[in-house]
Fold this protein.
Amino acid sequence: MKFSLFLGCVAVSILVVASGHTFNSTLDEDWKSWKSCYEKQYTQDEESYRRMVWEDNMRYIKQHNLEHSMGKHTFTVGMNQYGDLTTEEFNELMNGFFQDAADNSTEEDDDEGNGYDEDVDDLESDEIEESDDVMKYRKLDWRKKGLVTPVKKQGRCGSCWAFSVTGAIEGQWAKKCRRLVSLSEQNLLDCDTHSYGCMGGFKLSAFEYVKENGIQSEKAYPYIAKQSHCKFRKDKIAARIKKCNKVKKGEQNLAKALWKHGPIAVSLNSHPRSFHLYKQGVYSDPKCTQRRGHAVLVVGFGRENGINYWLVKNSWGTHWGEKGYIKIAKNRGNLCGIANYGVYPIVRKYMCKTLASSNST
Ligand SMILES: *[C@@H]1O[C@H](CO)[C@@H](O)[C@H](O)[C@H]1NC(C)=O
Ligand SMILES: *[C@@H]1O[C@H](CO)[C@@H](O)[C@H](O)[C@H]1NC(C)=O
């Protein structure tokens, strides 16, 4: 199995030698299998540069995980499909969240949410710290309630904003209409004229688009990781929203909104290299400041090895992090600015009916 993986790449090491760089030859096999695994193909010129960057990331990973084994970190890093990119390249390519200029949304004014109260058995009473009612619950995972679709992959396109928005709508739609439908990021990428497609976008503008038009399903309007002309069809709408609410800044407010409503679209800092190469555990790099740049979906919270975390669904595929998810340290001074900018849509029950016959695809 492993052997057959390498067969296609025999010619590659010759190119590396030809470039004049000296690479760590003990990593030759790893490099080959990594390229094969992620279907990387380079021009001759590019190959040696990418190998250099990749080796640097390999050294970084080795060092970090060594420190982790000595108890210095609460998370590990690992090689993934982005391992041939420098931190700068990665950020340029993948960050696509712009702060919304005109922010007229209301804050937390919807009382319809019936929360997660059926799950009182998740309460770990010996661990109660926070005094606030909602805060006594230590665990929340909306995946278990069927509000979260499988992890998606934005590819080489700064479209995180669209994934964050579809994720939040999918959650509310499933909660109100009892049907989990994967929704179309491409619909937003092509049709939200206030955003910039793969160059980045605005969550509020995308929500506004869906409020005005509705949104098609992933199946009916599939993702192609580049902006194209708008092919939206009114007769194929799969979900609608009434409006969109903003969550008040702060981790307590985020926890409450998450508990009460469901998955919340947030923006955060994903700039550090440790974030790009995150593998497992509770992410707690102090380098993750409050700078924004990336949009994701918070789907729960929990506790691991004595550290509270936010459970976050990313859109970098399942090979990244914990099967596409990251646990970000919770109540650690708003790490990565996770609680600065949360939004969620409101779906009304009557909206489910109007679409019952039209979302077969
Ligand atoms: C080459 O890589 C191996 C495996 O990571 C490592 O043990 C070794 O120290 C590296 N050698 C050099 C010269 O960097
Ligand atoms: C937000 O409110 C301001 C002032 O009320 C208004 O001029 C602007 O058009 C609004 N923006 C949006 C996106 O609704």
Residues 3-72 form one domain. The longest strand covers residues 294-304. The two ends are 37 Å apart (CA to CA). The pocket of 2-acetamido-2-deoxy-beta-D-glucopyranose (ligand 1) is lined by residues 24, 26-27, 62 (CB under 6 Å).
